[in-house]
Write a structure and sequence with these properties.
Helix content is 23%, strand content 33%. It is of the alpha+beta class and 199 residues long. α3 (143-161) runs antiparallel to α4. The chain binds zinc ion (ZN).
Length: 199
């Protein structure tokens, strides 16, 4: 199954996998297609999700922007981990697979990015994308992405904080805030709600 993501910097998140129902299976193969990448071409990666063995394998090819060099085939596994959330369900995370300056990152993250300066998907910390979050007025390559993952982080944080979603059958203020933010990210209430029990 192929999916489209329209963003400046190639990225995908656990939320995407959830919304594509990939995480409903122990073993799942699919592809992700970006229609506008930094090189303004259609790009895609193929992935194999293996929940039993705890990884997502990424397969794609890459070459430098505007270069004539040969395409390089890239294939590697990104480990997955889980945390438990309310109602005994599991939440999935990526473990950032990048080694930089001789150190393994290993951060637990919900989203991975492919920057033009690195051949591998990695967390925003490794790719130094956080600078633009703190400097919202700065208009740079990652300005838009900065706002996007800022919102995504708020959603993850809110999801972790919220213990009571409904009171007397009605959504709590905090939960409504979460749903609104999630909708702005393009996730339906169902997806955010995917790990919840009945009100
Ligand atoms: Zn990292």
């Amino acid at each position: 199954m192929s999916k489209l993501i329209k963003e400046d910097c190639k990225n995908f998140s656990i939320y995407n996998l959830r919304s594509w129902k990939a995480l409903d299976n122990n073993y799942y193969g699919g592809s992700i297609i970006w229609t506008s990448g930094y090189d303004e071409k259609k790009d895609d990666i193929r992935y194999i999700l293996n929940k039993d063995e705890g990884y997502i394998e990424l397969n794609y090819r890459i070459r430098r922007h505007n270069s004539d060099e040969e395409w390089k085939k890239i294939s590697y596994k990104v480990p997955l981990t889980t945390t438990s959330c309310h109602y005994g369900k599991k939440r999935y995370w990526f473990i950032c697979p990048l080694y930089s300056n001789g150190r393994y990152c290993g951060r637990r993250v919900a989203k991975l990015y492919l920057s033009p300066y690195c051949d591998y998907f990695a967390c925003r910390h490794c790719l130094n994308l956080s600078y633009d979050v703190r400097n919202k007025n700065r208009r740079g390559r990652f300005g838009y992405i900065g706002r996007f993952f800022d919102l995504e982080e708020q959603v993850v944080k809110l999801e972790e904080q919220i213990k009571i979603k409904f009171r007397a059958g009605r959504p709590t203020k905090k939960y409504l805030r979460l749903l609104n933010k999630a909708r702005r990210l393009g996730y339906s209430a169902d997806i955010v709600n995917g790990t919840l029990g009945k009100p």
